[in-house]
Specification:
The chain is mainly α. It folds into two domains: 4-85, Winged helix-like DNA-binding domain superfamily/Winged helix DNA-binding domain (Arc Repressor Mutant, subunit A); 90-238, Four Helix Bundle (Hemerythrin (Met), subunit A) (Up-down Bundle), CATH 1.20.120.530. It has nine helices and two strands, in the order αααββαααααα. The protein has helices at 10-26, 39-46, 50-62, 90-117, 120-138, 144-156, 161-170, 186-208, 212-238, and strands spanning 66-69, 73-76. Strands 1-2 form a two-stranded antiparallel ribbon. Strand 1 and strand 2 (73-76) form a beta hairpin. The two termini are 25 Å apart.
Length: 242
């Protein structure tokens, strides 16, 4: 069979195949839970190579429209038009992971120092930030800004201004959670936010108890867990292009 991608750019074909599948999903031709045609069937239908099909499916996957189940096939998991414009850039995810790797040792030490040095007023400020995160979870609002505020409050409680300066200089880029779970997936967002809240609570309580080792351990678990979540996302994004 003569493959069309020998005479046209692969990138153009990826876009064409991806858009064709996207429209089939958004139009209701394939509903949530439906299985898409196999990779072989898609190569035959669109007269393209397996590489083109894999890259097109990877794009749909990053948009939150499909998932690939090992040994079972490609399944539709969403048909929300709002997801069709969502792109998860591998380079951005890799950059987020790099930021987390820098943050981790800095904030582990900050948590330990905050436990040893925090004043009663600083302790209350940390608790207040923690309460605000819970309030935003309960009212189904983004916690990104409140999350940053908590980490900054912990840094401030070290009484070493360089910790606070480090976090504030990065801004909310250090809290890039929207790339892990799309805002449009309400149930998943709520579950994710509650997980983050539980991890924060362990940090906050250890600081309140002046237990520097527990504070360091809790911050390590929180940030290493975030790294693991990002590595899993990056692995998923690369699975069809490796």
């Amino acid at each position: 069979m003569q493959m069309k991608d020998r005479s046209r750019g692969t990138g153009s074909l990826v876009s064409q195949v991806g858009e064709s599948l996207r429209q089939a999903i958004l139009s209701g031709q394939y509903a949530a839970g439906d299985k898409l045609p196999s990779e072989h069937e898609l190569t035959e239908t669109h007269s393209v190579s397996r590489t083109v099909v894999r890259e097109a499916v990877a794009a749909l996957r990053s948009d939150g429209l499909v998932e690939v189940r090992q040994g079972a096939g490609i399944f539709v998991i969403g048909a929300d038009p709002a997801l069709s414009g969502r792109k998860v850039d591998k380079a951005r995810v890799a950059s987020d992971l790099e930021v987390l790797e820098i943050r981790t040792p800095v904030e582990i030490e900050a948590a330990g120092l905050a436990a040893l040095r925090r004043s009663p007023a600083q302790e209350e400020a940390i608790f207040e930030c923690h309460r605000k995160i819970l309030q935003r979870i309960e009212t189904d609002q983004s916690i990104r800004e409140a999350d940053l505020d908590l980490h900054v409050a912990i840094a401030e409680a070290t009484n070493n201004p360089l910790f606070k300066h480090f976090l504030e200089s990065q801004g909310t880029v250090i809290i890039p959670q929207s790339r892990l779970v799309p805002e449009t997936r309400t149930a998943e967002q709520t579950a994710y936010r509650k997980l983050i809240h539980r991890e924060h609570e362990a940090i906050v309580m250890a600081i309140s108890d002046r237990d520097d080792q527990a504070a360091r351990n809790a911050m390590r678990e929180h940030l290493v867990g975030s790294q693991a979540r990002y590595r899993n996302l990056l692995k998923d994004l690369r699975s069809f292009t490796s």
